[in-house]
Amino acid sequence: MRGRRRLRRGILLLLCVLYPLLPAACSTSLVPSVISTEHEYVLARFEMDTLMTIEDEDALYQRFDEEVLSDPYLHQLLTLFDDTTEAFWASNTLTSFPQTVVNKLVIVVNSSQAEVLHDVVIEDAGREVALELALGLGHEGRTDLAHAHQRFASTMARLLWELVGLPPSDVRPVALYEVTDPPVALDVGFQAAIETLHWERCGKEVAEAHAERCAQVTRNAFRRQFIDGAPSTTSRPREEAMETPGVVATFFYRLLQRANAAYPQRYMLWFTNYEDANIAHAKVLYALGRTPGSGRLSA
């Protein structure tokens, strides 16, 4: 499967080379611009106000592999992104992010904060490549790989959320026990579920705050009403529970733990592009992409 992806991107690069009579073709939607790399992802950094790719030979790639992607679950999320972009391509599913889909994940190491970056323009080997989505993992404009490791899961969850067509909830931070609008509860709950799976599987000592939050998600503590930030003995009414991010997080957490690798054959063109380990996540993403307000996946 990985070889097929390299072939696909190689074909796209070849198309750009073979269009000498159409000099603008590689900067239009007719022929997507592909950033070439030997790595599983592309690192980029801001130099002054210009976002530039980091050369494959740069030692930062090895450091990023060792300090961030040596974490098995974070590496799984990276392959989940790659599998999802391949599913769009292979199933001929329309997307609002064509440039993102044909490229490997672009990670900006010195963004102002850990966040999904939108409509970025990257200078790569003397040309400009526009991308709809990129993963920002910087810390106050600095490269901080410990911080990148800590924030990778939640930020990738937000990127995957948008990739399947769901709008981000652009609101103030919401506590997991706080009752909020259903779309916000869904968005924040999905992120919290991915974070919980990460901290549960990372095999490293987890900060006390992370450990407590993970424990609350896994035992469904948010099903109880909270008073002064602590769970009470009173269960939430059903409607309130559905509007509470922590309850949604527990739902997604348990669903991702229990779903198997089987899928309906009518969706084969979509799911056959996923590694078995990613099928449970793929099912959730596919379902999210078909909810009202999303880009409505139709593969």
Short key terms for the protein model shown above:
299 residues; two-stranded antiparallel ribbon; 11 helices; alpha/beta
Written account of the structure:
This protein is α/β, with parallel strands linked by helices and 299 residues long. It is built from 11 helices and 7 strands. A 5-stranded mixed beta barrel has the order 1-2-4-5-3. The protein has a two-stranded antiparallel ribbon with strand order 6-7. Helix 3 runs parallel beside helix 5 (145-163), helix 6 (182-201) crosses helix 7 (208-218) and helix 6 (182-201) packs across helix 9 (245-258). It is globular.
**Which overall shape is indicated by the principal axes computed on the Cα atoms?**
globular
Number of helices: 11
Q: Can you give the mean pLDDT?
A: 87
- How is the biggest beta sheet arranged? 5 strands, mixed, barrel
| Secondary structure: number of strands | 7
Task: Going across the biggest sheet, name each strand in turn.
Answer: 1-2-4-5-3
